[in-house]
Amino acid sequence: MAVGNIEQVEWEKLAQIALAAAWSVTALGAIRGTSLFEAMEVPEGATYFVALAKDLLAVYRAKGYEPMNFYAPLSGIETRSGTATSRR
Fold it and tell me: Which pTM was predicted?
């Protein structure tokens, strides 16, 4: 997909990397031997991931961008009535 604004692509990539890093370090760092998938099965872990994603999306949108599916994870999260759902 060709994009006229490379900054948007870079911000979307940054948001996704930041989400993975922030969630992994803070959620998985406290539980030795836990995998990403195991932590996501715990409701609190999944809820925390969604909260971080919403915060990063807010920053991304404040820059004037909308998720464009350059890197699938962020564009797959919708928020409705304050809750997050996956479009997948």
Answer: 0.66
